[in-house]
Design a protein that fits this description.
By secondary structure, the chain is α+β, with helices and mostly antiparallel strands. It is built from six helices and eight strands, in the order E-H-E-H-E-H-E-E-E-H-E-E-H-H. It is globular.
Length: 168
C-alpha cells in the first residue's frame, strides 16, 4: 500500500471524494504542517496554528497510482484560489500536496505542471514535504457517511464522478 496527503479545503468533502475512488483503501482526516502539537479542531479553526485540513489517503498501487489520484485531486479543487474553497475561507482551507518521500516529487511536479498549463493564473496549491499529521477528532472521520445531509463545499455530482473514474 502507498499513501498520499492532500489538503483540498474542508476535509469532510475531500475525504468523501477520495473514498469513492476504486483503489483507495482507507482515509482519515486531520491537520498537517502547522506549528502546534496535537491541535484540536477548535484550535485549527482560529487560523493561528498554521495547520491545513488534510486527508491521509492509503491506496493500492495495483489499482490506482499517484498520478491518477493527483489528477483527481485537481478536479475536486479550485487550484487558483488561495486559502478558500467554496464558501470556506482561511489558511486552514488552503490547498496542498504533502509528500512523504522524494520519489513522489517527479510525479507531483509533472501533474502540477500539466495542471498549471490549463490556467491563466498561477496555481495556489502548495507542494511541501509532510512535516507532521495529526488525526482529527472522531466526529470528523467519515463525516459525510455519518451525516449524509451534512455540509459540503463539493457538489454531489463530483462524488459520482469519483465512483465512475478509472485509471487508464
Amino acid at each position: 500500500m502507498k499513501e498520499l496527503y492532500v489538503a483540498g479545503g474542508c476535509f469532510w468533502g475531500t475525504e468523501h471524494f477520495f473514498k469513492q475512488i476504486d483503489g483507495v483503501i482507507e482515509t482519515e482526516v486531520g491537520f498537517a504542517n502547522g506549528i502546534t502539537e496535537n491541535p484540536t479542531y477548535k484550535e485549527v479553526y482560529t487560523d493561528t496554528t498554521q495547520h491545513a485540513e488534510t486527508v491521509h489517503i492509503v491506496y493500492d498501487p495495483e489499482k490506482v497510482d499517484l498520478e491518477f489520484l493527483l489528477n483527481m485531486f485537481f478536479k475536486a479543487i479550485d487550484p487558483t484560489s488561495l486559502n478558500k474553497q467554496g464558501e470556506d475561507e482561511g489558511t486552514r482551507y488552503r490547498t496542498g500536496i504533502y509528500y512523504t518521500s522524494e520519489d513522489q516529487l517527479p510525479i507531483i511536479n509533472k501533474v502540477y505542471q500539466e495542471q498549471q498549463a490549463l490556467f491563466d493564473k498561477p496555481l495556489a496549491v502548495e507542494v511541501k514535504p509532510l512535516k507532521k499529521f495529526y488525526k482529527a477528532e472522531e466526529y470528523h472521520q467519515d463525516y459525510l457517511d455519518k451525516n449524509p445531509n451534512g455540509y459540503c463545499h463539493l457538489p454531489k455530482e463530483l462524488f459520482e464522478f469519483a465512483r465512475q473514474a478509472k485509471k487508464k
